[in-house]
Amino acid sequence: MHNNKLPNFLIAGFAKCGTTSLVNYIKNHEEIFICKEKELRYLTYDLLKKKGYKGHGDENVKNIAVKSLDEYKSHFNTMPQHSAIGEATADTAYYYKHTIPKIKNILGDPKIIILLRDPVKRAISAYSHLVREERETLNFEDALNAENERLKSGFEYIWGYKQSSMYYESIRAYKENFTNVKIILFEDLIENPNKEVKNTLSFLEVNESYQFRKTQFNRSGRPKNTYLNRFLIKKSRFKDTLKRIFGEEITIRLKESIQKHNLEKIIVNQDLQKKLYLELKSDIENLENYLNIDLSHWKKYE
């Protein structure tokens, strides 16, 4: 293996927009190396290490973040056939003012992939994710009301349910600073994964004749059985043993299948969804005009 190669593409965010699914769809392509560990967080660690990671459970995120360039390089043990080398960290897009200069300094002009989703649905999904992780204890409305104070006090980006659903400024900054930026809509990835994966492979300039298995990854929701949920989301020697015996692919799919039955969807009333949409409406319209794409399916709350 050839160590110390650095990424020439980044899957940069946003959270709960299909990043995990895209990584799992493309990771077995013979010409692609995407590091095994998702969410390295190296590009934001130096920003957050002093004032960030203050939310419940954020300390665990801080502990696993990559803290040095040498450690970052160690995650890219590539083979000669890997022409596309990448990593996926969802907070890269949110903290764009910090990450863009750092990317340019360390990686130059890599290809950038950013996934976007109906911002109201994304916010609910992020909330549901933290409920699943047993980090969020407020109801959704109270959590939205607490958001500004939480972020001001140093909670990490995922607690910004509304702010992390505002994409325009970040997208504009990335497109103005990098030569190749690809935007993927979550809804398109779900509706036609074959087409979106093929387009992604074309963007990465690798062979487009590639088969992958379609499934949903990284589900969110309220656990029916909290003990089972804790077993599924936390690392353990037993799960490591299962991966060695059955392989990572089968183990992940088994976990996703169990989670599907153990998580119930969190329902947010339509009035609250519409209120949130109206607060995000101008950002959606700015993004729609800037990218010259149709985002009418994000406006069903009107």
Folded structure, characterized:
With 302 residues, this protein is α/β, with parallel strands linked by helices. It has one domain (9-221, 265-298): P-loop containing nucleotide triphosphate hydrolases (Rossmann fold), CATH 3.40.50.300. 50% of the residues lie in helices and 9% in strands. A 5-stranded parallel sheet has the order 2-3-1-4-5, with helices on both faces. Helix 9 runs parallel beside helix 15 (270-291) and helix 13 (237-246) crosses helix 14. It starts with 8 loop residues before the first strand and ends in an 11-residue tail after the last helix.
List descriptors.
50% helix; globular; 15 helices; 9% strand; Rossmann fold; alpha/beta; five-stranded parallel beta sheet; two-stranded antiparallel sheet; 302 residues
Q: State the CATH architecture.
A: 3-Layer(aba) Sandwich
CATH H level, superfamily name: P-loop containing nucleotide triphosphate hydrolases
Strand order of the largest sheet: 2-3-1-4-5
Count the E strands: 7
CATH topology category name: Rossmann fold
Which strand-content bin applies to the residues?
5-15%
Shape: globular
Helical residue percent?
A: 40-55%
Largest sheet: 5 strands, parallel
Give unreliable regions as ranges.
none
| N to C succession of SSEs | EHEHHHEHHEHHHEHHEHHHEH
